[in-house]
Amino acid sequence: MITIGITGTLGAGKGTIVDYLVQNKGFVHYSVRAFLTEEIKRRGLDVNRDTMTAVGNDLRAQHGPSWIVEQLYERAAASGCNCIIESVRTPGEVQALRGKPNFYLFAVDADPRVRYDRAVLRGSETDHVSFETFLANEQREMNNTDPNKQNLSVCIREADYRFDNGGTIDDLNHQVEQVLGEITYKRPSWDEYFMELADVASRRATCDRGRSGCVIVKDRQLLVTGYVGSPAGLPHCDEVGHLFRQTIDSDGHISTHCVRTVHAEQNAICQAARRGIALDGSTLYCRMTPCRTCAMLIINCGIKRVVCERKYHAGAESEELFRQAGVQIEFFHDEIQQYANQ
User: Fold this and answer.
1) Which residues have CB under 8 Å from 148's CB, separation 6+?
2) What's the angle, vertex CA 322, arms to CA 255 and CA 197, rounded to 5?
3) In Å, what is the CA distance from 177 to each residue of 45, 170, 172?
4) What is the pLDDT of residue 61?
5) Which residues touch 122 (CB under 8 Å, ≥6 apart)?
6) How many helices (H) and strands (E) does the chain have?
7) What is the phi/psi pair of residue 211, to 5°?
8) Do residues 330 and 218 touch, judged by C-beta distance below 8 A?
9) Helix (H, G, I), strand (E, B) or coil at 223
10) 3-state secondary structure of 105
11) Which residues are known to be catalytic?
12) pLDDT in tens, 287-332
């Protein structure tokens, strides 16, 4: 899910960008302005720039500087769709959204007279003002040392992408389209690249108790791959079923494991041994924390870095072995993978 926040000067074209993303790119729209309008009407007040500013500041003072956008983000996250949050106006809101995955802040601006003329044509409940009042309203929201209150100048400065809306709608849409191309195409890092290869290797696995794969890499060169499967020439779990054994750990917990197969890490290390490939100083990529046996093999063959997609719920012992042996272990995600009775 991509989340885009939009900030900018009054009447600059935030709504135009919203319309383009909603109508042409399938984004779902959430508006601070609409949220505040609902609250203003609930309180029985007139909808204008003064009440919008006052109610917004009151809600932020009561619940925190990012409370409004947090409410909108929760709605967006529940939808699971790409979303756009319009009218981000405080540094606290920007900071809160920065902590969300795949968040980008857009800022849009244009000449004040152009923006005022557009606002008059828009004719919303807060736009029936003179040019002088329009400028005064904007200036009031441009700078403020209180994090609960509007500070458009800081929000604009913090934007990932800025748009000049001094031309036509097509010009603005073209700018947005170019930026979307940058956002949606993300060149993977080396770790992401090799983890993808490990995921591909896992598709060859022949035990549905945990279809995992791994790759071992050195100097950004792929050395060997491995996946969960039975020893060469023996029947696969997918063909004849699992061969279960129970084990009891040091805390007395009983676990049931399939012992028909060789783990992905073990298979990769075996492949390296058969081909005379030295693994000293290499990096191993795998789905989750290796088991104790795999960890000991990894240490003994000289692998110095292990990168896992996520943690295994019973992987603490392996992590401690790696720590003692000076093997670096990293995780893409903090989630713990649970495999009951595996």
Assistant:
1) 57, 60, 61, 64, 65, 90, 92
2) 80
3) 39, 10, 9
4) 86
5) 11, 15
6) 14, 13
7) -75, 95
8) no
9) strand
10) strand
11) 265
12) 989 999 999 999 999 999 999 998 887 789 999 999 999 999 999 8
